[in-house]
Design a protein that fits this description.
The chain is mainly α. Helix content is 77%, strand content 0%. α4 packs across α5.
Length: 191
């Protein structure tokens, strides 16, 4: 801190001026020590605040990184299924990913929930268009029944193979009034 010199010429009785300067000096010393204490407290608070803010941010970044890795794995798994089941090209895989993103944004269902659910229907139908159409029904059922989407699509996939018991456990009618088994299409129309 640079020191400056102040020169004051006093004309007349200097006793009041001396007292004023002495009080000012004492006040300045007191103020200076209070500012030092406050500065040290602010520095300590800054370190605490930085730690309290930085650690949660690092935690969020860690979770975000984990989520991104899981999202990439989910997308890769779906891409492989698309290629293996339907012979999809890279453009087709990209179109399905775009559809999943749009569906996620429109429905509020996370894409990491949509991919495995869609994959269940894709494997059952072996047709991207049918899987997309049935996904809308599956989302409606999941919402109405308060069940997770993947459970619904697994039940629907089993029903494609002729086993409707899982849909029945979800409270979906699999038989008509006479007790006759309904076809998958009839079950989905009534769901």
């Amino acid at each position: 801190m640079a020191t400056r010199t102040l020169r004051v010429d006093i004309v007349g009785d200097a006793s009041k001026a001396r007292k004023a300067f002495a009080d000012a000096g004492t006040g300045a010393d007191t103020l200076s020590s209070k500012l030092d204490v406050a500065s040290k407290k602010l520095q300590a608070a800054g370190k605490t605040l930085t730690t309290n803010v930085t650690l949660p941010i690092l935690g969020v970044l860690g979770l975000s990184t984990k989520a991104a890795i899981e999202d990439e794995a989910s997308a890769s798994k779906l891409a492989n299924t698309l290629k293996n089941v339907t012979g999809a090209t890279s453009d087709h895989v990209s179109a399905v990913e775009d559809w999943i993103l749009k569906t996620s944004m429109a429905s509020g269902v996370a894409d990491d929930k949509l991919r495995p659910a869609f994959q269940n229907l894709l494997v059952a139908t072996k047709d991207t268009g049918q899987a997309q159409e049935q996904m809308a029904t599956a989302m409606d059922i999941a919402t109405a029944k308060g069940v997770d989407l993947e459970s619904v699509t697994k039940a629907m996939a089993k029903a494609h193979g002729g086993s409707t018991g899982a849909l029945g456990k979800l409270g979906i009618a699999t038989k008509d009034a006479a007790g006759n088994a309904l076809s998958f299409e009839e079950i989905m129309r009534n769901a």
